[in-house]
Design brief:
With 187 residues, the chain is mostly helical. The protein has a single domain (2-68, 108-179), classed as Clp, N-terminal domain (Double Clp-N motif, Orthogonal Bundle), CATH 1.10.1780. It is built from 10 helices and 2 strands, in the order αβαααααβαααα. It has helices spanning 7-23, 30-39, 44-51, 58-70, 76-84, 89-100, 123-138, 146-155, 159-166, 171-179; strands at 27-28, 120-121. α8 runs antiparallel to α10 (171-179). The longest helix has 17 residues, at 7-23.
């Protein structure tokens, strides 16, 4: 499948691996793909994000991802579902952090023996890349670009889509900017 990726899409995948190596996590998740997209400039996805008002608000997205990571990667929908069962995730996080330190539920492996091999891709990250292929095929695009990865992230339930939607970046708004010929406004 990677032979169909454009240079920009390949750079996103490489950037996601670099983010993982930077925190020594070992597994590339959808969040890392989003972080790598935020790092890009001069690509179709970066154009769409800028057109939707995220150009100057990238740090807001990074903070949103960090907040979710502190909750062990749970989305608000998952947190709400647990609350319906009587489990207060913020209370669980507070107790764990009280005992083990801030960020203990984030899954960071900086204090553990880290395997120095290649980073693997989580099922979620693989799903995003497969969805990017499906988006490209559905649009009859010959290659998978970083814009297809962005569209896949917005279409797939989870933390990246939630964080982007909170900032007005949805599948529909990205489609409008990339293919609709009109201006899309965040919000």
């Amino acid at each position: 499948m990677f032979e169909r990726f454009t240079k920009d899409a390949r750079e996103v995948v490489k950037g996601a691996v670099e983010h993982v190596e930077g925190v020594r996590a070992g597994t590339v998740d959808p969040e890392h793909l989003l972080l790598a997209l935020l790092d890009r400039e001069g690509s179709r996805a970066s154009f769409a994000l800028a057109a939707l008002g995220l150009g100057e608000r990238k740090e807001s997205v990074r903070r949103g991802l960090e907040e979710a990571r502190r909750r062990a990667g749970l989305s608000r929908a998952e947190t709400d579902a647990l609350a319906g069962l009587g489990i207060d995730v913020s209370e669980v996080v507070a107790r764990v952090e009280e005992t083990h330190g801030v960020g203990a539920m984030s899954g960071d492996r900086a204090d553990k023996g880290w395997w120095a091999g290649r980073s693997s891709f989580s099922r979620g990250a693989k799903d995003v890349l497969e969805a990017a292929l499906r988006v490209a095929v559905a649009r009859r695009d010959r290659h998978i670009g970083d814009e297809h990865i962005l569209l896949a992230l917005t279409a797939r339930p989870g933390v990246p889509a939630e964080v982007l939607a909170d900032r007005g970046v949805t599948y529909a708004s990205v489609i409008r900017v990339l293919y609709g010929g009109g201006e899309a406004k965040a919000g």
